């Protein structure tokens, strides 16, 4: 009722009652049985009932639940006593996205995952996380603060038992939810960075997405921060805007009947190349600036500063008419300043002084 009631005030009142019942059952019950929490199929049925397509709830073919769309339709018909026809049972309740109802469901799931951390298996948690990420890409949801989404994500990440094994799987799965650079950056920034697991996921996911956007061959994700920074240096060398533009021009020429492109199309491709550079640099910042580093990692940041200066900053020719170039150069300056700050804070030991200033390759 909370998830489908069209009156926002009533839906919130039902949520309050539902949470009060759940807390009371958890606090005062002497029963060894945990309070009821919705199963994965219950959650899917609720969103499916709102009109969200099953394929949007579970978008990846290799990560599917043990039930399908037909099961949800059958359960809905049984719940309603078979009173609705087959056609009407599939009809969405809402004509537009019900933001309030969705957020109320998310709030209740946040409570459930908090009081019963063992309520879902790791695979179910992964499916829930992917469901939340996919839903967050909805344009209407992008217009409102997703604090409740992030609170639920914190609980779900905390409740994963085999965390180190699941992180690479989760990164690769989230990476498949979109191909648009802006959406991929949005997904990275949705991950809460104020918990250790959140920071780890955010860093690994950023590396996976950088590799994808640069058309790099997929490889294992390094867990150690110094290895991540080492991989980052290799990627940074490939982020020269002029090189990205050349790739785009070659690809576009191959698509043209006469194999040529005019000036207006070339300018549009240049804007796309700088936009891609801008997204990539934001992801670089997510990998490199999300946690503290030891003095032994200072040389890696010296390498990064050199690569950023040589391959990105020096490749940008500012023009008053081309503001997008200036925007990218400003981001380069902010990242460079942050790395310089890290270098200053990573005080060397006496034995490490000899390997600080290694020439950039």
TrEMBL record:
GO terms for cellular component: nucleus; site of double-strand break. This is SMC5-SMC6 complex localization factor protein 2 isoform X4. Belongs to the FAM178 family. Residues 1-218 form the Coiled-coil SMC6 And NSE5 INteracting (CANIN) domain. It comes from Zalophus californianus. GO terms for biological process: DNA damage response; positive regulation of double-strand break repair; protein localization to site of double-strand break.
């Amino acid at each position: 009722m909370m998830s489908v009631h069209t009156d926002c005030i009533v839906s919130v009142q039902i949520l309050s009652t539902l949470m009060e019942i759940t807390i009371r059952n958890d606090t005062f019950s002497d029963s060894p049985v945990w309070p009821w929490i919705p199963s994965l199929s219950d959650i899917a049925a609720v969103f499916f009932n709102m009109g969200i397509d099953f394929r949007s709830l579970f978008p990846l073919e290799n990560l599917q639940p043990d039930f399908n769309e037909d099961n949800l339709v059958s359960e809905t018909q049984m719940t309603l006593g078979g009173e609705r026809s087959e056609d009407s049972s599939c009809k969405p309740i809402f004509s537009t996205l019900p933001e309030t109802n969705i957020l109320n469901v998310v709030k209740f799931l946040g409570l459930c995952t908090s009081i019963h951390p063992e309520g879902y298996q790791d695979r179910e948690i992964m499916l829930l996380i992917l469901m939340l990420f996919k839903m967050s890409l909805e344009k209407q949801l992008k217009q409102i603060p997703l604090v409740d989404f992030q609170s639920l994500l914190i609980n779900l990440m905390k409740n994963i038992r085999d965390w180190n094994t699941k992180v690479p799987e989760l990164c690769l799965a989230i990476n498949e939810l979109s191909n648009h650079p802006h959406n991929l950056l949005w997904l990275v920034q949705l991950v809460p960075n104020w918990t250790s697991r959140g920071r780890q996921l955010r860093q690994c996911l950023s590396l996976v997405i950088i590799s994808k956007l640069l058309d790099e061959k997929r490889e294992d994700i390094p867990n150690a921060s110094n290895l991540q920074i080492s991989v980052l240096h290799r990627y940074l060398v490939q982020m020269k805007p002029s090189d990205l533009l050349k790739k785009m021009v070659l690809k576009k020429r191959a698509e043209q009947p006469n194999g040529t492109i005019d000036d207006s199309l070339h300018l549009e491709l240049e804007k796309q190349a700088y936009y891609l550079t801008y997204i990539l640099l934001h992801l670089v910042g997510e990998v490199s600036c999300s946690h503290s580093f030891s003095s032994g990692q200072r040389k890696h940041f010296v390498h990064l500063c050199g690569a950023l200066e040589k391959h990105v900053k020096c490749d940008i020719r500012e023009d008053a008419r081309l503001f997008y170039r200036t925007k990218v150069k400003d981001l380069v300056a902010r990242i460079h300043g942050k790395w310089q700050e890290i270098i200053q804070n990573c005080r060397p030991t006496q034995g490490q002084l000899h390997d600080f200033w290694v020439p950039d390759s």
